[in-house]
Amino acid sequence: MIVVVPVTPPREGLVLSSLVEQSPLSAAEAVSLYETTVADVLWAVASSGGDLLVNYRDADTLPDGHADGDPEAEVRALVLDALGEDAEVRFERQVGSSRAARVGNTVTHLLEREGANSVGVLEPTAPLVARTEIDGAAMSLRRYDVVLGPAERGGTYFTGFSESIDFTDAYATPELSTLAQQAADDGRGVGFAPMLPTVATPTGLQATVARLAAQQAADRPGAEATAALVDDLGIGVGADGELERE
After folding, report:
1. Which end of the chain is more exposed for a tag (fewer CB within 10 A), N or C?
2. Do residues 79 and 7 make contact, with C-beta atoms less than 8 angstroms apart?
3. What are phi and psi of 33, to 5 degrees?
């Protein structure tokens, strides 16, 4: 399976911006969190049986106000800092005016033009993902045409394809059920990966922080980069279930 990780340049106001408005994190801390989650996701892919492809956003796909500088260089620096300068990583730019278009273009190209057996799109904001989930999804794609990894609030952290679908509006909210319905409408068999939260929403960040605390208590390490940053920032989940600074 080719594992596509879509990465956005780590800039304030561009990544995890909803957390700045709805959590104790500052804009700079949100960028740091994004960088650590990207690192953990990349490490998980590198340790799996999948082939990593980093799909970066360039000036043509970035919103107004963020199309300056060298976004490709920023993404390459982030990836190589995580994996090491000697890491062999394939980089491809994203093409399309929406998330659905960008994912659809990438998946369709890899399946139909390059003849890949299967393609998985793994969100860079799911630091709890591990080799087990990635390799398990690859196995499921031998049985199902489409495999979906549910995240919080009806979202997805993983979408896998051994056959393409019509991606028009396929990521409309709630994307989990929208993707499943579109796949069914296209005659594709649908399977599911285990559920994992992302840090893209306050709810997902709460679940991630709580899981990291549980893993630490059980002496079962994982998502090391994100866990270290959470500890450094003193982020926890309070008795009311809300994020707080310790």
Report:
1. C
2. yes
3. -65, -45
